[in-house]
Each structure stands twice: as C-alpha cells, then as structure tokens.
Amino acid sequence: MFNVVKIISERGKLSSVKNSPIPLCLRKILSEKLSGVISVKDDSFEKKIYFKKGIVLFATTNIIQERLGEILFKSGKITRQEFWSIHKMIEKKNQKIGKLLVENGILTEKDVYQGMQLQIKSIVLSLFFLNSGEWDFEEKNPEIPEDSHFNLCLAKIIHEGAVRYLQNANLYINQHFSKSPIISILPGKVKNILPEKLINFHSSLAVFSTTANEDIPKQLGLSEKEYWEKLLPLYLLGIVDFDTIEIDEEERANIEKVTGLYSKIKEEKLNFYEVLGLKPDSSSEDIRSSYFDFAKKFHPDRITTAPDPGITEKANFVFSEINRAYDTLSDNNKKRQYDMDMIKEKNTEGTGPDKSIERASLLHRKAKTLFNQKNFWEATTLLEESIRLNPQRGAYYLLLGMSQMNVPTMIRVAEKNLSTAVNLDPWSPEPLVALGILFLNENMVKRAESFFRKAISIDPEHKVAKKRLNDILASSSKGLMKNSIFKKK
Q: Which contacts qualify for 97-101: CB closer than 8 Å, 24 or more apart?
C-alpha cells in the first residue's frame, strides 16, 4: 500500500501528488478522526485544508475560480452585474466579499455561510483531480477562529470525489489488482450517504474474501471499469481494504531487474541490442528468442503486487523499450539503418562541450521522429537528456513542452517548459502558439487568446495563430449575439 502513515509522521516531508494521492490521506483522516492541516502547492496554486477530529473545518486557496465570489456566481447566488460591482467595492474599501454582500443587501448571512460551505467543499473536491504538485499533512490542532468552523462531513466529500472526480485511478487499481477485498461493517453515518446500489454492492463482496480483484467482476456480472468505480469509493471511505500478498523470490528478482534496466535506459547507457541482452552480431533467431524471453519476464502484469507504487510505471517503460528494440531489430531495413546510426554516433562520441552539443542535437532529432509517431512519453525522455546536455536551446524546451501537452499528468510541467522556450527565443511565435493551444485545451480562453495575439504580433501571417484566434473571436461573437437584446426574434 501507499505509505500514508510514513507521510503523515514525517513533518515537513513533501509528497508527490502523482505518486502519493491525497485521497489516501483523506481516508486516514476520516478513519482515525485526525486533526491537522493538508498543504498542497504547485507553481500555479497553493491550498490548505483544516481538519478537526475527521471533520473539515475550513479551507483556503489562491485559485481565482475557487474564490467565494466565483463560487457564488457559478451557483447562481449572485448575478454577473452584482459580482463585478462587489469586486469594485472590494478594491475601494478593502473588505471581505461576504461582509460587503450582506451590508449591501445582496445576500443574507445564511446565504453567505452556505456559499462558504460550498467553496470549502469545492476546494477539497479539487484534490481528487489534481495531477501535479506536492503536499504534506501536519497533524495538530488547527488554529482557526470559532466563527470560521464550517464543519463539513468528510465522508460525503470523499464519496462525491471518488465517484465524480478521481484522478489517477489506475494507481489504486494497479496496486490492488491481484489482492482480495477485506470488508468492514458499514457505519450508520456512512450508510446514510451511500446510494442503495453501492450498499448492495458492499454486501455482495462479503463472499469474495479469498478471491483476487481481477477475478471478481466476471462473477458479479460487471465490467472491470464498473467494478472499480464501485469499489474505490468504498476503499477511500475506509469500508474496504485489501490483503497483503507476499512477493515470491522470482518476482522480487524481476523487480530488481526492471528497476536496473529502467535506470540504465533512462541514463542512455543501453542501445537496443543491450536492452535485449544481445550483441550487434546476434542472429535473427537470437533476437527473436531474447525478445520473447524478456517480454515474458518483464511484463508489467507480473509485478502488480510490488510494494513500490512507482514500479508499474517503470515496468511499463521498460516493456515499451523492449518492444521498440524488437520492432527495430527484427526488421532488416530498420536494423540496417539503426546499425548505421550507431556507427555515426560512436564516431562523434567525446567528452568536450562540442560533443555534448552534437549529442543533444542528435537526441532532439530522434525526439522529433518519436513526436511525429505520437510516442510522446519516449520523446519526453530524449528531450530531457537533450536539455541536460545543452540547456540553452529554446527548440528543445518547445518540443518537450509540446510532447508533455499530450500527457495528461504533465500539463503544468509543459506550461513551464514552453514558457522557458519563450524566454530563450523571444522572437519566435511557435512557443507562444503552443502555449495558446495548451490554455485553449484547458478552457482558459482569455489566456489562450493573449498568446495567439502575441504570436501574430511577431509573425502576422502565422496560419495556426490566425486560425485559432479567429475561432475564438467567432465563438465569442456568437455568444454575444445570442445574449444580445437586439437579436432578431
């Protein structure tokens, strides 16, 4: 299991959102009725959630979309006109929005209180779909004034978050795929918040205490997706746990080999022959035999019970490289070209700065090919090495950011690398266009528009920037016409 106990006990230790999901910490806080503060931060945001004996007291955020005014407007409590008028008053009087809303007769104190409850709930729910950032939990009595205790039911929020927003569900599935569910009795308070279908599902699990999760869906007449969609909310509510399966010696050895191969491949120390444990003069039969042996030995499904939550990702990477190596070496034309590239690369090897620059350029060219083949993860790996060898090339950061844009868990890192590309090549429109597309994909239309305009200011004839900007303006124009009081009936 993910080591949440260790995370909570080590004060000041930051954990990665990607590898150590925050919902597991919420599970522990609920189950053990803990008091304390979860702090979450990334380059673009910072949040804090305060708990007392397993109850959500309060939350803070610096994300505009999660502030009280935005929440009240989105929930229909205030109109757009009231929203903007209050913001102008805040600038003049420097008072909190809730107080101004009450003083101006726009909302009652009860309305503001309910709005703040909704805001706090939204902040906690946002933890379920985070895919970047770092966090920690400090166990202590939170120093929050009594009038700021909103006392929200954590079980309700966990249930809603697990059903609607859960990000990185595969992390949980991979960790417990081959384990058996251990069922606890449903507490009355939790039972009251669960739909009847989930209560019946909980009851049906009782007979599967010695059956692996991978075998249960068929016996219940469910798809694998339906099964985990029902199981994970119960797990995060602390009603279901999983047994621990001992790792046999063969699997332990394979885990060590996968970890070693992963490190060597990442450091660019292995060519395709070495990945398969071969020499360049190996025969076609040797290549084929070695591939099937490695593919069987290092298949990710063979190490699902490993204690390290990152091992599955490493196994997937190694398995992908094994397949890439075989795809190249088993094709005579590809193999011939690969052997020629190896000879050229060997002739250009060296330790001086010029050789590092040459190697960075070579890796960049290979990454371009991978990008065009939509192998974004592999392209990212090569580009990170290119940047290590030559960190002053904006083109490397540009392609890295564009590759990471296509990996859902790396969107924020992509933004950072594209911004670096802008700084290194301020007169190039390409990184600006890429940033525009990134923000457009994230539904941040205004930010996207600003980047497309900047790109056009550098290159007035840039086709992509012009088309994207025209699409935004056309969409905005249609929206204005739709809402206009002058439109035709």
A: 97/67, 97/68, 97/69, 98/68, 101/72
